[in-house]
Design a protein that fits this description.
2 domains, six-stranded mixed beta sheet, alpha/beta
């Protein structure tokens, strides 16, 4: 009788042990599954966060304590002159055009002139980009910087230039900006004349480089 009880206890013990192992195995499988799901969730959330962050950073930038937001083709930022706020709209944000050099120095004729003559070669190439750069300069110089921009031509060889002033950098009594087609974008400050050089988009970038400098957002 005692042997039967002993056998029964051993069977019960073995049964409980088997049940315990089965429970532990099931629990382990559940934990593994939960862990896998958790990893998938973390990876999915991380990728979504990364994509959202990259998308945000693509249209929101900071430069020299100014915040830039991209809307359409333009980067916008707030700028204040004499307590009057302005919203600047330029095609490039400063970080894109840092490598464009500015060399030389302007004289008092340029710095003190209320009127600035914007001149170009009407027989040159890339005139559509010249027009775009001229528009960027005119809009910003007139509205935010409080100076008058007067459209001029380098030579009087086209119908469009017959009614415009003919102005070159040799007109020492005038403040002149000369938009010049050149391979490398840069800005040359030469006494009364500012020469903005570049080819196609490079010309627009050089024009905006000097504008950001005038606004005090970028340094020379």
């Amino acid at each position: 009788m005692k042997e039967d009880n002993k056998g029964t206890r051993e069977k019960d013990k073995k049964k409980k042990s088997d049940e315990s192992r089965a429970i532990n195995k099931s629990l382990r499988n559940i934990l593994i599954l939960v862990g896998i799901l958790l990893i998938i969730f973390i990876l999915s959330f991380g990728m979504k966060y990364y994509k959202n962050k990259k998308a945000y950073e693509a249209v929101h930038k900071e430069y020299n304590y100014y915040t830039f937001d991209k809307e359409g083709l333009h980067w916008k930022t707030k700028w204040v002159r004499n307590d009057q706020p302005y919203i600047l709209q330029l095609r490039y944000w400063p970080g894109e055009i840092e490598d464009i050099t500015i060399i030389g120095k302007l004289n008092q004729v340029f710095n003190n002139s209320k009127n600035i003559y914007l001149t170009f070669n009407p027989e040159g190439s890339n005139l559509s980009y010249v027009a775009l750069a001229a528009a960027e300069l005119s809009l910003n110089i007139n509205s935010a910087l409080g100076r008058n921009m007067i459209a001029a031509c380098l030579v009087n060889n086209t119908v469009e230039c017959h009614t415009r002033p003919i102005v070159t950098c040799e007109d020492k009594d005038k403040a002149v900006i000369y938009l010049k087609d050149a391979e490398t974008p840069r800005v040359i400050l030469s006494g009364n004349c500012m020469i903005i050089e570049g080819s196609e988009e490079g010309l627009v970038q050089a024009a905006e480089r000097i504008l950001y400098t005038w606004y005090g957002i970028m340094r020379v």
